[in-house]
What does this fold into?
Amino acid sequence: MSTVEVKNVKNEKVGEVELNDLIFNREVKKYVLHDVVRSQRAAKRAGTASTKTRADVRGSSAKPWRQKGTGRARAGTRKSPIWRGGGVAFGPKPRDFSFKLNRKVKQQAVSMALSARFQEGNLVVIDDFSMEAIKTRDFVNVMQVLELNNALIVVDSDNETLSKSSRNVPGYKVMKSEGLNVYDILLHEKLVLLHPAIENLEERLTV
It folds into this structure.
């Protein structure tokens, strides 16, 4: 079992916590992280790009001129892709870009991302992050004390005061442990876990 310091919002050590090595200190396989991030980003693509083919273009279906005798190239329709205002050949149509990954692979990838942050020394555990009021300045002051310039903050339950205090500050994001994912972990330089969230993560990621 690995251990990490538990700090308070004043950046003072208040204890230590043991971490499950199967989740926080396992071998990191970059290709697994790459596959999962690619899957997450692909699923977010709208896939709504659409063009009109020659069958969709409005216009006459009459032959522009007779086949022979004019000296011009033969033409059968004004909707041809080679004509201005004609249809598009092989253009995009609405589609779903997402692809399936096994549930266990996704769980392992989250563990690997957590392990990467722990092994880099970029995992911070704090005992509590309660705020009296929604105030961006107070949140920024705490981040300065903790020396965090870019961080994902993982909480164990809804914390509206913290979420609203941080949402206008670039470089920070507050997320519940249930929604923790590889992309958000890797997108932020530091990972901040509230102490109670660790137990939730260990329960969720124990395969």
